[in-house]
Specification:
This protein has about 70 residues and is an all-alpha fold. The protein has four helices and no strands.
Length: about 70
C-alpha cells in the first residue's frame, strides 16, 4: 500500500502526517508522488505510519536532530 493510501486509511490529511513525522508538507507531497528519495524523511513517515497502524494513538516524533533524553551531551 502506498504512503497516500496508508495515510487516508488512518483518516489523516497530508498536513497531519507531515506534522506527526516532523517533515515539510511539500516533501510529504513529493513522497506521495514517489518523487522524494531523502531516506531520513521517508523513514520518519514510515515510522509514524507503522506505529499508527499498530494502534498507537497520537504518534508524534521529535523534530529531526534533537538528541534523545537519554543521550548525554558533553
Amino acid at each position: 500500500m502506498s504512503i497516500k493510501e496508508r495515510r487516508k486509511a488512518l483518516g489523516w490529511n497530508r498536513t497531519t502526517l507531515a506534522q506527526r513525522a516532523q517533515v515539510d508538507r511539500s516533501a510529504m507531497q513529493l513522497m506521495e508522488l514517489g518523487e522524494w528519495s531523502e531516506s531520513d524523511a521517508l523513514a520518519r513517515v514510515e515510522e509514524v505510519l507503522r506505529r499508527a497502524e499498530a494502534g498507537e494513538v497520537d504518534v508524534q516524533l521529535e523534530p529531526p536532530g534533537k538528541p534523545d533524553d537519554a543521550t548525554e551531551l558533553r
